[in-house]
């Protein structure tokens, strides 16, 4: 008998294909990263991320309402901090009236059910553009963790639902969990950037926040002493395991498209919800190629997002959230 098996039977039309489909993408899979800036009625497109803006709080709130109506249930908040507020300690990060804290309160006030996930990391607040305190050319671990705990608690006080530490210091999940418990924030969760790689795909994000490591003597030019080496996969399991033991509620793999093997590895080895971050450079690549007419924007966008679901991601941080939610409608 030839052919032995006819796989094409189950592909012969859209009806049968939809019946046997294994992964599904819906607007509530998405978390939209947002960039908030000082000012009023301010909105500025990030040149390397067409369609994504730094915007003042009033405009941010309009957007949050709009995406809620599209079915998106969570936002990941970043703030663009004025250079005059940056230093080596990151202390603006726990200013109770800082831009981040104001933003969290305003979002929870406008759309109480929106899950607010503030970024926990010092880089937007650091004069050196690092996710930690720098001394003698080194990013200090334990003093940075102490700063992150102050930052996380102030975000919880402002009403954050789930803290999103993206810094990759050792021990910060346990320290944040302990800090939250001691202060009565038992229901504030932690989504840990557990397997975050030192990646060149973050370029446009660092433009957005003006947060790239500065080029100066005795300041490391990259983040390789804390973010993971992209040659490694087993190490991601050790990172994830540590963060689960320390109290993470959800773990993350970042970046996304070049790291689908890691998403699958984590999903297959642990029973904790897994998130993936399709980062700024991935977004920029698809935007640039489609602007040139080299790729079909919408089709490539949905294919890339579905691949995350197929690999095992439970939720996807993506700058395409709004456009994809509109298409999936
Ligand atoms: C830094 C941080 C980065 C991103 C999120 N938080 C960049 C970095 O590690 O330098 C990248 C997001 C993106 O590229 O979309 N704490």
TrEMBL record:
<keyword id="KW-0627">Porphyrin biosynthesis</keyword>
<comment type="similarity">
    <text>Belongs to the ALAD family.</text>
</comment>
<keyword id="KW-0350">Heme biosynthesis</keyword>
<protein>
    <recommendedName>
        <fullName>Delta-aminolevulinic acid dehydratase</fullName>
        <ecNumber>4.2.1.24</ecNumber>
    </recommendedName>
</protein>
<dbReference type="InterPro" id="IPR030656">
    <property type="entry name" value="ALAD_AS"/>
</dbReference>
<dbReference type="Pfam" id="PF00490">
    <property type="entry name" value="ALAD"/>
</dbReference>
<comment type="pathway">
    <text>Porphyrin-containing compound metabolism; protoporphyrin-IX biosynthesis; coproporphyrinogen-III from 5-aminolevulinate: step 1/4.</text>
</comment>
<dbReference type="InterPro" id="IPR013785">
    <property type="entry name" value="Aldolase_TIM"/>
</dbReference>
<comment type="subunit">
    <text>Homooctamer.</text>
</comment>
<dbReference type="GO" id="GO:0004655">
    <property type="term" value="F:porphobilinogen synthase activity"/>
</dbReference>
<dbReference type="InterPro" id="IPR001731">
    <property type="entry name" value="ALAD"/>
</dbReference>
<keyword id="KW-0456">Lyase</keyword>
